[in-house]
Automatic annotation (TrEMBL), chains A, B, C, D:
GO terms for molecular function: isomerase activity; metal ion binding. The lineage of its organism: Bacteria, Pseudomonadati, Bacteroidota, Flavobacteriia, Flavobacteriales. This is Sugar isomerase. SUPFAM superfamilies: Xylose isomerase-like (SSF51658). PANTHER family: L-RHAMNOSE ISOMERASE. It comes from Polaribacter butkevichii. Signal peptide: none annotated. It comes from the Bacteria. Keywords: Isomerase, Manganese, Metal-binding.
Length: 426, 426, 426, 426
């Protein structure tokens, strides 16, 4: 299943007039206010978010999983799916692999396929939260933090192997999400677990190519329900600092305690030059892994406001690895990802409309009402025409969900792959 | 301080052209999609929210309070302030009094003043969470739920007195917010406290005029930090049912545990015909009493989506008493209230854009992606021109915050009242 | 694997002297304070908690599952496991089955086995949160609340079938945990979902034998992450009231939003005669399903304090169905259950030590400090000798965990069943 | 009001026999298990907690305050109150002053009084969250983080003044609790606020005597309800590291988001040698400032388990400044403090009963059940006789609350001071 340029061209024809009308009107309004519309559209076009390979099939909970149909069952098919997303949205130009689920059998063929679809290999992910069939040691009681040296070594070696795989594909960063922790008080010695983790990460760090980054994810709970070794940004940063200049903190939106102010975390990490990556999703209760922007779109905008600020004002911080990390329990995974990509573009576009000079002046004057007016003024703007334009400029479709449906993508995938395929993942 | 029609006329002249341009464009787009723009604008014009008399001065926390200036120190001045709000926004056509802070000395004069400003007296509020100077009994350990009959009787009598005051002014409902509860395990017998409360409410209910409603508010914590007698909607509803047909539950947005799904509560209460009132504010952590829409505007929209549904589909539910219940710790209270009123209108307007038929069809088909598209499609629309139009139609200003500032309202109030006035309230 | 009376007799011999010494001392102290020690011990002996059949194997999370060994793979083996628990603790005299996981092939044989182990069949559980292999309809978008009549009917019929199975075994109540809800705003019409649920429950209720109870569980989230149809006790109670006198609310400790005051819910439900069942577990973040008492033992004590109060003062409330509902992700399930049973007995024993007359007097006098002293005085008492005595009186062991290990129970089970068995469950 | 040695002696006579009986029995049991009872008792005796001067009067909420009676209205009277607490409990041998509420008029006299009561001056606290009458600049929009240099300088100077006052009294540390933050998105530039804070703290640090410590407190929210500059331990630690070796993080139990694992924070900070102080209280919802141990005593025990571990294993971490930081809204403040002191001693005593060697072995073996048994075994022990003994050894009373009441302390204080005194504080 591939979406052709002709299909897209034909599809766009129908909506073009209305799009142009709306864009022209909006651009007129924005230009009057001093915005450089072309520059905003160009930034939107450039913004690319990685799709994780495990998000292309249906997700589930501990209570069960309801299959979707036509899921990709090989790495090739996963990349095909990302290709479909990218051809429609033009913002999904990267894939993030998960090892051992995605070990390529033929590296050259995989790279060629990805190249042909204009897809890069972004951060690669290791897995030490599950036992593999042939594994000598079990991660039941932890991996990088385990009290057993043999288990730690197995986990370290796995990460080193993952780096090698990523290196062959052109990845430039390794993301470590460590599920290690404890389910009950007393189970862990916090200090030992932390020091073991630090030492293990240092060993992994030593195997990192010079132009790579190590991204250390944090999470307060789940799958461990009493403590997690890397419970928050403070712990992640401490460990990153303990590794070296190429180690960074990775923020996943769903990995916070209730009511956390995530935008402040993002801002301070950028100030320190230590924000390395960002995982998008949304949630109401815990790490719900819902579609980006489906629950708290204003919070997402506020976070983007800080990210934009950092991108413009914090040269000490590197370029970020952006990725969607959601689970698709009841929606078609590809439709769900399209909705996420749109929500990300929307938040980014609105953040780009914030007049940073005006805001700074209002902040200096402690004009709190004005500060709010400025942020809300940007947020209340309907930026959909700008996003459509950004897509059109690079060959995408005006309305990706609509196009996906009118192209019968899922039906085609089922025809090709059958109904009862199951993608690797959660 | 009064804002004159001439001022408003002159002010609107400047912005009218741009407003009309935006409205025309938006109305065109909406009409194409099948919306009846005039009807939406008319509903927006009709929607009136009560301003609580205690919200016209600066609020504070237990750590202190920073005064604003020119605060109203009499009931007359409070009504003047609401008059200013209403003349600008045309959506603040009611005031909600709090007794004993607002006992009128001259009822006829107060009513005349309110009439002249087109302001109604909405739900009236009792206060049994603080001791009054001349009070015989103390509410330190509760009022309507107290183990002491004398204390309960004093609290009941106070509520009956409040009804009488409200009756003279034209109010049609009494709001009871009961702070009663406990700070420590064991302090209260939950069952005794609940039954005392039920009996006290029944005694108050007996004193209710036939055309009045009793609105019972709930709140999980604060000022009591272990338990609150009316901790949630379930307890409130039970008590309302125990009183009779004129008793209803009142929902305050900030009175919920973290992550509550408030829109579902609102919906089920309407289904049962028992949602009587609604207090607007916003919050990130607890009962933060921030400006409406300043933290979670999408949640507010989702709530309005249910409210609109109920207004259209639940004739068993009465008209609601709408009120802003926020605290203004660092903003000019009047500016803060204007921002709240705008956020309410915005959420309402967007909810009116939800195509309920399409939504119902998508729900029936379990097309979750489509359901989300429909809601987000409405939410992403920039409805500001509609709100401006609704204001213009009834004599308000295009941009209330901007007008408030250009009319130098606060400066005038300070001139009239002095800097160091303090309004009664929290 | 069965634990024999002889094993127990021999085991107890060793610890008896020290036990007696501690019991005598404690009994002396308690008697001096006016407690009737024999009566407390007798109440502890009588208190029996059902073991759910699905809790005898290892649980997991969406991220994976680490097997334990020697898990029961048939209903017979599950009952054997409960038999082991009961022989050691003498407080696990019931089992709670889950259909379709536990449909007996030979009812007479199963009943005989349970009888021989002194185990009753307590509340039986239906499952409409997963699809069964041969099912015509899918519960992906809900069961009792589904918009499709055919799906609702399948779910109703399943519950009616479950009642029949339970009836043959001697169960007297059906527990309905309804996972139905939505993952995204707009997905559900709250009112339709609620009404469908009410109607479906009424249909199930009609099939309930006269001496049965319908227990309606509530839960705020998971597996649905935006809304759950029966989100809290208020919704559950409304539905129970809509069914009739034999329908009750069931409280599961882990099914609450952060910071909920569960003891107050329990108390008010008993006041209204509507608390039907109780599921024990513990949690720090969400529905973590950890060992009872492992995280918040004082909260458990406070809840038991209300339960004891209700049992003594609320004849309007029926006897409760008690059950452990925990998941055993990293502990031996049987050891985990023993620790839970001990924690329950401990909380119950401490609650029995609260002097209700003194407490009532202190409450009446608003002597908050004294109220706390009374509760903490009971809680700080080391009641382990009382629990040991209660077990010894009915044939159990002094120290169940220790005995379990010294009898090599797990090793025996592995010998009998093999290592790689997997129990049905989550 | 002073409690005399004779009063104490007479009081203790009555309870001594029963105390001795219980202690002997417990000591026998503990000794059998290998515990060194004398050493535990001695550690309990040595453990001293500072009483904050502002906690000796009734506290309140933004909704009001109910006075207690006989509150201390001068610094002398406050120290008298601490003297009473210390004479009864022998664990309150320090006071923590708050400037400007407690500026001594006569340093020599104040020191002499404190000396005579055996009370030390522990960490001294600055206040930049309220405006003082004669202040030139307002802290409405922040102090150390303010965008205005003049305001920052005033706040820095205040802290330097506080150091000087503390120095004259023998204090050795300054605690900075910074309320700075924002109530609305956009109000603050997070990075500017953070950098201003860092720079201000460095300026204060420069004024610190060589043998002093700077303790930096964190808090996620309140009085600011959108963001707080020092929102968590990660931010506090970053700032402390930015100051130097004498700067440390201070943990207040109530200053965390829901469900935080505080014991892990405490443990990791000790590992890094950066835990400087600890504020005790308890809470169910937010920063409720309830009596220590009144809501989550097991969590307190778990925290003490880490503190004890750190005191024994982390020489890199300094001695901690211990303080109670609770608010007394409905209890007699002195009784409330006594209950807090007892809860602290209880948690400490139980933590001292944890067999660290056994625990470590069980952790190494991943025997999670055993780990829990070890912690719960210690926690379930009734340690009250040990605490009584610790008090008796140093001249305190067996039962402080009981003694306080039988000595009629409050009545005496009212006689001396009158009913309507009001202590400075919140």
């Amino acid at each position: 299943m591939k979406v052709s340029k002709e299909q897209i061209f034909e599809y766009n024809k129908k909506g073009l007039e209305n799009h142009t009308e709306k864009l022209d009107f909006l651009a007129g309004q924005l230009t009057k206010k001093g915005h450089d519309v072309a520059s905003i559209v160009s930034k939107l076009s450039e913004f690319q978010v990685a799709i994780p390979s495990w998000a292309l099939g249906a997700g589930g909970t501990r209570f069960g999983r309801f299959s979707h149909f036509g899921e990709p069952s090989t790495l090739e098919q996963k990349i095909d799916d990302v290709g479909v997303l990218h051809s429609l949205t033009q913002t999904a130009g990267a894939v993030s692999l998960h090892i051992p689920w995605d070990v390529p059998s033929d590296y050259a063929a995989i790279k060629e396929k990805a190249d042909s679809l204009n897809i890069k290999f972004d951060a690669i992910n290791s897995n030490t939260f599950q036992d593999q069939k042939d594994a000598k040691e079990s991660y039941k009681f932890g991996s990088l933090s385990n009290t057993s040296q043999a288990i730690r070594e197995q986990a370290i070696q796995h990460n080193l192997d993952v780096i090698k795989i990523g290196d062959k594909l052109g990845s430039k960063s390794l993301t470590v999400w460590l599920a290690d922790g404890s389910c009950f008080p007393g189970q862990n010695n916090f200090q030992t677990a932390f020091q073991n983790t630090q030492n293990s990460l240092i060993d992994i760090y030593k195997g990192l190519p010079d132009d790579w980054k190590l991204l250390i994810e944090y999470k307060p709970f789940e799958p461990n329900f009493y403590s997690t070794v890397i419970q928050d940004w403070g712990a992640s940063l401490m460990l990153a600092n303990g590794c070296g200049d190429k180690a960074f903190t990775l923020v996943d939106l769903g990995h916070h305690l209730p009511n956390s102010n995530i935008e402040q975390i993002v801002s301070i990490l950028q100030l320190k030059g230590k924000l390395g990556g960002f995982h998008f999703n949304d949630s109401k209760y815990g790490d719900d892994d819902l579609t980006v922007g489906s629950i708290k779109p204003y919070a997402l905008f506020l976070i983007f406001n800080e990210l934009v600020y950092g991108m413009e004002n914090n040269p000490q911080n590197p370029d970020l690895a952006w990725m969607i990390d959601a689970s698709h329990n009841i929606k078609d995974p590809l439709e769900d990802l399209i909705q996420s990509l749109e929500a990300i573009q929307e938040a980014y576009a609105k953040a780009l409309l914030v007049d940073q000079n005006l805001l700074r002046a209002a902040q200096e004057a402690n004009d709190v009402v004005k500060c709010q007016e400025i942020l809300q003024g940007a947020y209340r703007t309907d930026v959909r025409p700008l996003i459509e334009k950004a897509r059109l400029n690079t060959g995408g479709v005006i309305s990706p969900i609509n196009a996906y449906r009118s192209f019968n993508v899922r039906e085609e995938l089922i025809k090709e792959r059958g109904r009862n395929t199951v993608a690797t993942g959660l």
